[in-house]
Amino acid sequence: QIAVRACFLGFAFGCGVLLSAGRSAWRHFGWYMCSLSLFHYSEYLVTAINNPRSLSLDSFLLNHSFEYNLAALSSWVEFTLEKLLFPELKQITWLSTVGLLMVIFGDCLRKAAMLTAGSNFNHIVQNEKSDTHTLVTSGVYGWFRHPSYVGWFYWSIGTQVLLCNPICVVGYALASWRFFRERIEEEEITLIHFFGEEYLEYKRKVPSGLPFIKGVKLEL
Fold this sequence. Notes:
Helices cover 65% and strands 0% of the residues. By secondary structure, it is mainly alpha-helical. It has one domain: Four Helix Bundle (Hemerythrin (Met), subunit A). The longest helix has 30 residues, at 166-195. It is a multi-pass membrane protein. Belongs to the class VI-like SAM-binding methyltransferase superfamily. Isoprenylcysteine carboxyl methyltransferase family.
């Protein structure tokens, strides 16, 4: 099953490259296909390098959630309909380039966060502290408390800017912001339980990285 998913992502990436190389009206969608397939493949690859004990089929994040799959489907539907009804909207190259830069920045930031955290990083919020679990505050964690979420947030919005999908840009921004607000609060309760005053001091010094999200309001 791992090989099947890897081959599928490789095939999607190849199709994206072919679309990107041409001068067809689908060139920007080719950029999107490359970005999407590379994101999911690299999630598995970096997890395999960093924390092989937590590696599983779910590490591709292809089956992240029903809502995630619905959001992806919605973006494809919007792109196709608007391409048929307003083809000029999908030919704004400078806007798609901005979206591509957002995608590259977001994905690089997320992977940098995963590599910096090493075995401390896990796709699932941990409820029990392991013997090797340490509080990471260096590298990109010195910029933001949750750099992997910041990266994913801007990556997801960037995919829709790339596709010139105005409806999904707004929808993705709102849905992602709400998801990460709840996820950060849940995670920070666990981190305070794990590290106590050490994490609270880190929390006071370093921002979450996401707009208008300050994290859990809890003091010892």
